[in-house]
């Protein structure tokens, strides 16, 4: 985890250095020098951040003593990465109108994020689900970060801004619902796994029980397993099945 975090920080620092150079080139009407190299660095950082969010989730489940501090550091790195991505778009992807005001192609960006959201799956295994939760955490943070950048200036006009704002709010709501569904499904599957482990342990105990005529108190043993059977027929976890699984 530390190695990945160090590499993300190096990629971010290098990207910021090259962005500063090309920002000056833009002011002086000189050709850009580092667009492709920065794109590679930011993409590498994004992939490592996904792994880091997955690792910190595992650390929290294992009750690692420094899990909260590690999570804060990763969130800080992710925020720096988002700012660099926004700076990258401002420099290389801006669309100039007659007033030379930099704009963002919000229609393309929001449609792409909605497409990513619609294409995401649920499960089917716990490992898959944990990866999906980590990946969606990054996507959700990216969507939230768009809020500060979406304005009349970046949209190009008041009419376009109103349309993009409505589309953005819908995208944000969908992302929040997916986050909720993933959390509900994770809790449900975790409860199922705990129940299966419990039933497996009870099965082994029954197999190892001496059921011969040498049992000292057979009525007591019978009552004991009648109680256990009754317990096993009752749910052992306190939450409902998500409605999308009904």
From TrEMBL:
The Periplakin/Envoplakin N-terminal domain, residue ranges: 1-93
Keyword Coiled coil listed: yes
Pfam families with a match to the protein in the record: Spectrin_1st_PEPL (PF23160)
Annotated keywords: Coiled coil
Keyword Coiled coil assigned: yes
Family named by the database record: Belongs to the plakin or cytolinker family.
Protein name: Periplakin/Envoplakin N-terminal domain-containing protein
Native source species: Ataeniobius toweri
